[in-house]
Each structure stands twice: as C-alpha cells, then as structure tokens.
Specification:
heterodimer; A: 115 residues; mainly beta; 7-stranded mixed sheet; 4-stranded antiparallel sheet; 11 strands; 0% helix; globular; B: 112 residues; 6-stranded mixed sheet
C-alpha cells in the first residue's frame, strides 16, 4: 500500500494554463506539506496544513493555492502557469507531536513542465 | 533563522570506499537532526535521525552523531555500494514545531 500518493506523476502544460496536483496519505497523519524541488535539487517548503488548517504559508505567489478537504488530502492548484513553475512538487505528511519534530513521509513527486 | 550547511557535491567514490558527508547547522535550542535520502526518480525517505546531543542515528550501514558542541551531524558509511548512489539531505527541525530546514543536498555517485 502506498503511504503518500500523488497524481499525476508527470504534467506537461502550456504557459497560462491552470492545473491541479492531488495528494493523499493513508498513514493517519495530522500534518501535510507541499514542497518544490528545483533542477539543482534544492527543496523549498511552500505550504503545510494541520488537520485541515493552514499552518505554514511561505512566500509563494498567489497563483498557488492549497486546499485540504480532509486531513488525508492536500491538493495544490496553480493558476496562470509560468515557465519558472517547472519543477518537481513533493507532497509529504507527518504525525505532529508536541515533543519532537516528526519524520516526514514523502510522495513520489509530480514533475511539472511548463512550455 | 535556522540554517543547514552541507558539503557541496557531487561526491564520486569507488565501491567499498569510506564516505563522509559533512553537515553543520545553526539553530536555537535543541533541534532534531535528520538525514534524508533521495534515490533517482523517487521521493525523499528518512535515512536516520537523532533527537538529542550525543545520540547516534544509524541505518543501512550509515551513521551520524549529534554533536552539540560543534553543531554538526556528519554522515558516514564505512563501505559504500553502487546502490548508495543518491542525493543526501541534512535536515533540522525545531522541537515541537513541524517546519524543517533542509540543506542543499549532496549528490553521491558510487562507481564499480
């Protein structure tokens, strides 16, 4: 069973289009994240939700909007796609606890190519 | 703010060579320390972790010791294999806070 899954795995689209990436986790975790990985493998956190509530919102263009319908799902919608949005987007989840920072479990990634 | 500095890659080693990937951090308090690994075409996965000073994390022959006095968490393996070729990320997390800080990643290539 896949712990953290993302769809689609590959997404090729034209500049100006709107697209969505979906993420689901079956680990029963409370916290989910979206990361962007550039071509040099640098990882940048974009958003995090805890029990459907937005808790981390880094400096990300307004064209990116996360949505969490329930604590097992966190989707990412991107409006008016630009060339610079081309990257690999990773979803992750963790079981929030008060004492330590918990291990994050990553999905396989969605490779977005904007032409 | 918190930051992580990893050695630049790529690192190229022959099979069975000794591996060290250096990692130092800047953080207030007592962060949790992690090494994550990303195999080609895959997502990241936890390799090992340590949550307090002098703890040693280990997994798959890899080890790293939480050194508070030098704020370091160097990754070591005594004998690397071709299958260890991947990108390795040093990561710190503030206690009780789920946002983590990633290093820039070090690509390891092991040649037969």
């Amino acid at each position: 069973d896949t712990a953290v899954s993302q769809t689609p795995k590959y997404l090729v689209t034209q500049m100006g289009n709107d697209k969505s990436i979906k993420c689901e986790q079956n680990l029963g975790h409370d916290t989910m994240y979206w990361y962007k990985q550039d071509s040099k493998k640098f990882l940048k956190i974009m958003f995090s939700y805890n029990n459907k509530e937005l808790i981390i919102n880094e400096t990300v263009p307004n064209r990116f909007s996360p949505k969490s319908p329930d604590k097992a799902h966190l989707n990412l919608h991107i409006n008016s796609l630009e060339l610079g949005d081309s990257a690999v987007y990773f979803c992750a989840s963790s079981q929030a606890s008060g004492e330590t920072t918990d291990t994050q479990y990553f999905g396989p990634g969605t490779r977005l190519t904007v032409l | 703010g918190d930051s992580v500095t990893q050695m630049e890659g790529p690192v190229t080693l022959s099979e069975e060579a000794f591996l060290t990937i250096n990692c130092t951090y800047t953080a207030t308090g007592y962060p949790s320390l992690f090494w994550y690994v990303q195999y080609p075409g895959e997502g990241l996965q936890l390799l090992l972790k340590a949550t307090k000073a002098d703890d040693k994390g280990s997994n798959k022959g890899f080890e790293a010791t939480y050194r508070k006095e030098t704020t370091s968490f160097h990754l070591e393996k005594g004998s690397v294999q071709v299958s260890d070729s991947a990108v390795y990320f040093c990561v710190i997390g503030k206690r009780g806070y789920q946002k983590v800080t990633f290093g820039t990643g070090t690509k390891l290539q092991v040649i037969p």
